[in-house]
Amino acid sequence: MNLNSIQDRIGSASISLTESVVAGESINFTITYTAGYFGIDDTGSIKICTRFATDMGRPQFTAPDQPNYVSIVASNGATLEYRFDPKANIRPWDKTLYIKVVKGFFREGDQLLVHYGDPISGCPGMRMQTFCEETFEFKVLVDAFATCQYIEVPESPVLSIVPGAVAKWKAQLPTMRRVNESFRLQLKAEDRWGNPADQTDFRLRFSPTQSVNGLPSETIDVSLKDGVLFFEGLSVPVPGDLSVELHDAKGDHVTRSNPMRIIEHSELVPFWGELHGQSEETIGTNSIYDYFAFARDKAGLDVIVHQGNDFQITNEFWEKIQSMTQQFLDEGELVTFPGYEWSGNTGLGGDRNVLFFQEGEPIRRSSHVLVPDLTDLNNDCNSSDDLFLALKETKTIVFAHVGGRYADIQSHEGNLERSVEIHSAWGTFEWLLQDALRFGYRVGIVSNSDGHKGRPGASYPGASMFGSYGGLTCILARKLTREMIWESLLRRHHYGTTGNRMYMDVGVLMNNPGTRFIEDPKLGDTEVESTQKCIMGDIVQTADSDVILRVEIIASAPIEKLEVRNGLKVLETVRPYKKAELGNRIRVIWAGAEYRGRGRETVWDGCASIDGNTIEAFTPINLYNLEKTIQQPNPGHLEWKAITTGGFGGFDCMLKDPQAGTITIETAHANCTVSVADIGFQEKRVDAGGLDRHIRLVRLPDTNPHHHLVLERKIPLISSGDNPLYVCVTQEDGHQAWSSPIYLFQ
Question: Which of 146, 354, 443, 692 can bridge 41 by disulfide, Cβ–Cβ 3.0-4.6 Å?
């Protein structure tokens, strides 16, 4: 008897809900398994599995009046043992509710009833996943013979997860356009978890900072299908900096767009890319078609790349990936590249993102562990050294990545590995860049999401282990074509952000002409050109002992600080406000990670107490998970639940008195008591072990109007080795951005 004939008689599973479920809502429902011809033998078991990517509430079985309570009964009275294990099945169906028959057995027709969010004793419900999915599946696997050989029921129960009500609005502009050049404004409505949400019959008025041809000047009625509306064919007749504020019919503020620079002429234009994300065919959510469509139609991206884990990519899916990149390529509107994530174990090199210039290249996997077709096994590259060797003569770009596995960049090939990814939904990893600089590599900086939730370019972390909003890479290119974007990626002409869209211009002016290298001269012969100016990513030899660094930032929120860096050293921390502007606002930040690997999450649950003063208001920073919040039980006390995975979170608190009292911070990793009067312009820091884990406090102006920062500094150069000059910008809303280093040497 083969497995197919067993599957036909293994039983069936059904779900009590047929209507759509709102993302993140708490509900109750029942999955019923009905035993088939074979029943289930004594000590046999059932698994109900959901995808790794889901952030549905974790089932619990001991507190029936608390969220996510699950009760399980057998219709025939058999005794059951059960548990939840987040990694008890083959990926991507990792998250497993395991149910074992320990006394008794099932005959045909006996039923197992699994009540999710069972309300009978007061459970408020099972909190559903926070992102949309048309087919949220509960995969039911049965070990009918008590052999640990599981067989899937023919049809798995499915729910449809849809967006909730509109909670916030976003307005998105390009970052730069030339005078009278056409552009569009994207308006997006999102629910509280960041899903695009429908909105009808809403009245809006646009308030641009300068005149925009084609933008409605009066209050208009808007209806958003699938959460998005585009205003096409706009233009600006004169140079300047544009942002658009939106107000509702009552005149109340709704949202403000990102900044846009209007310029007479520019050789390079910023284009926004998401170079790393996954779909349901590997470990993500929704189909690969949905992935590319979301990037184009809802995220407003210019460049999009799909990066599935290689050991899950079948030959058929590799062809599908390339078919999708061809289908969605629309030069001038959207640029795509085929690629995949080489997902080797860290000891063999760790995660690398592989991008090909065009379709037609073979996939070289780290292994075939989840690919049953072994006909192309000889193409495998089990180590990153093998991968670099195999890709040597191809038109390929590689990025080092930190995900579940992290890249060990002791293994490196500079002609291929052009950049390191220092931010994604997994967290912030400046240590990866620091490793590269210590090794003397000349790499750029990219930020992406590695998003698993089907929202490339707008990747909220939801309520899962992903602690950060997904990043974006801003690519400075001559045109939005494959060739021009590829050229910019090769030359590191880009900067990375934590998902915000800011204008960033970083350049160096030399006293005397220097030599700019098109490729890294450490790696072989290359073309050269003479220049006195260079931009982010350039490699330049100069006879000058010092250079002028010029920086201009137009941020998407008020600027907290900018760090000027030469390699591993912070040369200066610049704040756009003066000491005299400081007010009653105190910023408390927790940051860092446990270590580099999968278990990097640091739990910062804690509290802050004010003695001799009062907290009049507070604002959370980087707390995207709505289940990890800050509460104020009394005027002198805050309590919170929070995690970091390499980045930072925290809060601003507005004190009644700017000088009085003390503030005490208590967490599992660090505690401190600081006089409020001693908190000033410079940060106070308390180290907490781990990987750059710490708490810091600083005083800010009550209101910070500074979105724009222009900086010019004379930078003395180190005479031996490289001078990797770059900046890191931190906004008050918690977003950051990093320019790719300019590599200067004498």
Answer: 146
Omega before 59 within 30 of 0, i.e. cis: no
> Residue 88: how many CA atoms within 13 Å on its side-chain side?
20
Q: Where are the alpha helices (DSSP H) in 342-452?
A: 384-391, 430-438
The residue-averaged pLDDT of 465-490 equals 95
Question: Are residues 142 and 150 in contact, defined by beta-carbon separation less than 8 angstroms?
Answer: yes
The CATH superfamily assigned to 270-499 is Metal-dependent hydrolases (3.20.20.140)
Indicate the DSSP class of residue 308. -
SS3 162: strand
Q: Note the pLDDT of residue 721.
A: 94
Residue 590: both structure tokens together: 């927790």
Determine the Cα angle at 701 with ends 699 and 707, to 5°: 115
Cα dihedral 342, 347, 348, 353, rounded to 10, equals 20
**pLDDT band with cut points at 50, 70 and 90 for residue 466:** confident
Over residues 302-315, the mean pLDDT reads 98
Neighbours of 248 (CB within 10 A): 14
Domain 3-162 classification at class level: mainly beta
Domain ranges of the chain: 3-162, 168-263, 270-499, 502-576+707-746, 579-701
Token pair 């300019």 is found at 742
Q: Does residue 92 have a cis bond before it (omega within 30 degrees)?
A: yes
Quick check: do 3-162 and 270-499 share a fold?
no
Q: Per CATH, the architecture of 168-263 is what?
A: Sandwich (2.60)
Task: Report how far residue 743's alpha carbon sits from residue 746's, in angstroms, rounded to the nearest whole number.
Answer: 10
Contact 64, 120 (CB under 8 A): yes
> In this model, does residue 155 exceed pLDDT 90?
yes
Burial label for 543, CB within 10 Å (0-12, 13-18, 19+), is exposed
What superfamily would CATH give domain 502-576+707-746? Immunoglobulins (2.60.40.10)
